[in-house]
Amino acid sequence: MSQAKGKKLINTVERCVDDSLEGFVAVNPGARLLQGHRVVVRSDIEEYKASGKVAVISGGGSGHEPAHPGYVGRGMLSAAVCGAVFASPPPNSILAGIRAVGKGNKGGVLLVVKNYTGDRINFGLAAERGKSEGIKVDMVVIGEDCALTSHDKTAGRRGLGGTIFLHKLAGALAEEGRPLEEIVRICTEATQNMGTIGIALSPCSLPGQGPTFQLGEDEMELGLGVHGEAGVKRMKLLTAKETVEAMIAHMTNKNSSTHLDINKGDKVAVLVNNLGGTSVLELTLMAGEVIRSIENKGVLVQRAFCGSFMTSLEMAGVIVTVMHLNDVRAKCLDAATSAPGWSPPFLAPGMTNRETPERMPADDADLSDMIVTSGEGLTVDADTGKLLYSILKAICETLISQESSLNQLDSQTGDGDCGSTLKAGAEGILKYLGTETSPGLPVTHPQNLLLSLACLVERWMGGSSGAMYSLFVTAAAAVVAHDVSATGWCSAFQKGMQAISKYGGAEPGDRTMLDSMNAAYNTLVANLSSSSPIDAFEAAVKAAEQAAADTANMTARAGRASYVSKDLQTQPDAGAVAVSVWLKAIYLTLKKS
């Protein structure tokens, strides 16, 4: 399949829905497919019908998984009827579902239908045919979209994330044994007390077709539907906080005929739904912003749900649904269900209402304790302290300036964040460095200085780079505690390399930072006896730069690059280049002094 049509892991376009449903029931043996139809039914449906409880059916186009088959189970749907991708299911399949769960069931059948013309017509037709066969059938239409600014007589508000809330309410009420008429009333009231707004960053593509719409790299669309229907406006890409504020502002805009009223003191449930292509990192980040935005209005978010509930294939974006809560709705949301698509939040035993989280105190050192002052090692004079201060400042500023180039090198064989990681560590050090006349780090006490740097890079740089550099300076600190001569610093450099090799598993020749370090160390040792320290250091820097360049022709045998094909390793290793960068910064500072 061509890139333009969107790559999909399918066998054929024609069979993709059927194959998906067969896979679903293979994974979930509590569900079965009706022969000849795209209808998923609870496998215990005969026992359920015998109980006389209302059966709940929903459905719609495929491509929104886990909706709708994912909500078949005890406490939610009795059956789900699936159409082709983004297409309403045919009336004969809906009728087959009604017969399967309603024939001989005194409780009757409730159809939960989204407010799309095709769904209303097809489900309505099947409902009338079911009634003509003596099956008790009723229908609730959900249309809670807040994107529209006026009502349309034929289409109107779309059914979006609120459908999932309705599945939960109807299923829980049915499981309680409530009569059909009461369930219809409660669900109808719920539809009038909820609203949804969506935002998209990229389109989806239907199997065998291209993208459903186009968005610029710096654009996002507010208020779109789950089928890629146009939203209310296109906007320039904003931060997550700004995006949420725009969404909530539109949802609650009293000048819009489809707005949702939420006022100070109200209690609500919130659902933050992944449209399919949003990372979990972004999704939970957005969920936090949504809760904060709503609670800043004095509204209490008593229930919060976050996950992939109703997707739109691989569309990047989210939809946010807000529903006013009363005791009945809250109880229904809390009720147990075996439906695999429902993702309740993690609650501690006995918890129901969502509580504003408090941070648990960590059993570690306060950030102010990162500056080590307890070492008993040698000290240096004030001028040397100023030199060490200048060296540190130069290293940090140079690494910050090289963020983009190091990221670019790292993107070939890593995850493209080497420069950003080193920049974060450098910025962390600068937070504590202070000024030359009032340094925040113990620059006249080399051992304490290096141990402080170990804490700072571990905290601010993080990841494997933070750990490696923390190991490096921690091991080096033991040497400068008793020798701060040029040879002492050289030995400290060697001890740092040995620690990296011991715990990281890499050796010189493995295409890592150790290649630059090793070349610099060997050159420094070879030249210190015959040259001035500054000349020896200059030669060491040149050796490090050459070693870093030579890594372009080496095979990686350690680190993330070792997992990457040799054919892709055509540029120097980013970690090795970074070493040559900060070594040169040291040299230039020494030369200037």
Automatic annotation (TrEMBL):
The entry's active site is: H227
Q: Which Gene3D superfamilies match?
A: 1.25.40.340, Dihydroxyacetone kinase, domain 1, Dihydroxyacetone kinase, domain 2
In this chain, substrate is annotated as bound at: G61, S62, G63, H64, K114, D119
Entry keywords, A to Z: ATP-binding, Cobalt, Kinase, Nucleotide-binding, Transferase
Q: Which residues form the DhaK domain?
A: 12-342
Q: Which GO terms describe its biological process?
A: glycerol catabolic process
Q: Name one GO molecular function term.
A: glycerone kinase activity
Q: Which reaction does it catalyse?
A: dihydroxyacetone + ATP = dihydroxyacetone phosphate + ADP + H(+); D-glyceraldehyde + ATP = D-glyceraldehyde 3-phosphate + ADP + H(+); FAD = riboflavin cyclic-4',5'-phosphate + AMP + H(+)
CC per GO annotation: cytosol
* Domain DhaL span(s) in chain numbering: 386-588
The UniProt transmembrane annotation reads none
Q: Which domain of life is it from?
A: Eukaryota
Pathway given for this chain reads: Polyol metabolism; glycerol fermentation; glycerone phosphate from glycerol (oxidative route): step 2/2
Q: What is its EC number?
A: 2.7.1.28, 2.7.1.29, 4.6.1.15
Which Pfam families does the UniProt record give? Dak1, Dak2
Assembly notes? Homodimer. Interacts with IFIH1 (via the CARD domains), the interaction is inhibited by viral infection.
Family stated for the protein in its record: Belongs to the dihydroxyacetone kinase (DAK) family.
Biological role stated in the UniProt entry: Catalyzes both the phosphorylation of dihydroxyacetone and of glyceraldehyde, and the splitting of ribonucleoside diphosphate-X compounds among which FAD is the best substrate. Represses IFIH1-mediated cellular antiviral response.
What this protein is called in its record is: Triokinase/FMN cyclase
Tell me what organism the protein belongs to: Lingula anatina (Brachiopod)
Query: What gene, per UniProt, encodes this protein?
Result: LOC106162726
